[in-house]
Design a protein that fits this description.
This protein is of the alpha/beta class. Helix content is 34%, strand content 17%. Helix 10 runs parallel beside helix 11 and helix 10 packs parallel to helix 15.
């Protein structure tokens, strides 16, 4: 049976460090940006455990591990001991204990608001400091500040997306308040982009909101959507949705699609430029005739349903920006709220698609009849 890992008080660890022991901070890079024990080498726990020889070439050297409060460093020390490192110790109380003991620390490398606001992101190896800065540099266009746009916008703003372009020409109506959580009763009659802008900046004053009170048309769609990293479609009509799709195909930008009706919703990422991706017209080449499209004022929707789908859209947007995980490109995710079931439908790019098919050249944008979609 292996002996238990020895925990050292911060002062004892400091003395050993001064005598030549290697101090390793196993927190994630975003955590280390708040300041580290002076002289420590910084490497995340997962990376250290996966490739210890890169950072610790001598298994007989004296190694001191430190984290935030002492738990991760103790666990990591146990792993390293099992890999043959003979003299590995954990600093009890971690960096907090080190600071309490008034031992030397490096200066923070980011401002306090940033480090505190995004602290839970910064602890994720998949996000970290570089990922959070990538979110801050990102530009997302959000079509619609209604049922789908509301939850998507709130979580994009909270996540620290640096620039959000909100496009909506509508005003807040009392019937919106059952599901459009960006707006308040006092906002009735106010343009949605104005109400949304106030709410989002109150949540995160460090982001930029470009409020565009306009309807997407063939004449302006490419100008409004160009220069963005991701476009989220929260529109409520087929005319806008097809314009958004066609512009995204031409611009090579991923379109995060969502739709809801009654108790059912669906979400996907349309991105034919991506391997295995397709576009909205591959699934629905042409919109239905106006007489067969549901009327927004007549088609009901469970109030929480746009929240579920809008949050999934925001999740896909964040993943796309960070380049992590597996996106819904090539997949239609369907949600049945009554049965509380998700199912996935594989989507294939249609070689004969009128927009992204083989041999299809650049086509003009067309304003379709304003048939109301299920939203």
């Amino acid at each position: 049976m292996r002996p238990a890992i020895i925990e050292l008080a911060p002062n004892d660890a400091y003395e050993r460090q001064q005598s030549g022991a290697l101090l390793v901070d196993v927190r994630e890079d975003g955590e280390r940006a708040t300041g580290m024990a002076k002289g420590a080498t910084g490497v995340g726990r997962a990376r250290l455990e996966a490739e210890p020889a890169v950072w610790l070439p001598d298994p007989t050297a004296e190694i001191l591990l430190i984290c935030a409060a002492g738990a991760r460093s103790l666990q990591c020390a146990g792993i390293l001991r099992g890999l043959g490192y003979e003299h590995v110790y954990s600093v009890s109380g971690g960096t907090k204990g080190w600071q309490t003991a008034d031992l030397p620390m490096t200066e923070p490398t980011a401002d306090t608001d940033f480090l505190e606001r995004y602290s839970r992101h910064l602890r994720l190896p998949e996000v970290g400091l570089d990922g959070q800065r990538r979110l801050a540099a990102a530009r997302v266009a959000l079509i619609g500040a209604g049922g789908l746009g509301s939850p998507a916008a709130l979580y994009l703003a909270a996540a620290g997306i640096g620039h959000i372009t909100l496009i909506d020409d509508d005003v807040v109506d009392r019937s919106n308040l059952q599901r459009q959580v960006l707006h308040r009763d006092a906002d009735i009659g106010t343009p949605k982009v104005e109400s949304a802008c106030r709410t989002l900046l109150a949540l995160n004053p460090h982001i930029a909101i470009d409020a565009r009170r306009t309807r997407l048309l063939a004449a302006n769609v490419e100008r409004l959507l160009s220069g963005h990293d991701v476009v989220i479609d929260g529109s409520d009509n087929f005319s806008t949705r097809y314009l958004v799709n066609d512009a995204c195909v031409r611009l090579g930008v991923p379109m995060v699609y969502g739709a809801v009706q009654g108790f059912d919703g669906q979400v996907s990422v349309f991105w034919p430029a991506h391997a295995g991706g397709s576009c909205y017209r591959c699934l629905f080449p042409e919109p239905p005739s106006p007489e067969f499209a549901p009327n927004c004022s007549e088609a009901g929707v469970l109030g929480v349903l746009p929240g579920v789908i809008g949050l999934l859209q925001a999740t896909e947007a964040v993943k796309l920006i960070l380049g992590i995980g597996e996106s819904l490109s090539g997949t239609l995710l369907r949600f049945d709220a009554l049965g509380m079931r998700f199912d996935r439908l594989r989507l294939e790019r249609d070689p004969a698609c009128p927009r992204c098919g083989d041999g299809i050249g650049t086509a003009d944008y067309v304003d379709l009849p304003a048939a109301c979609a299920a939203h």
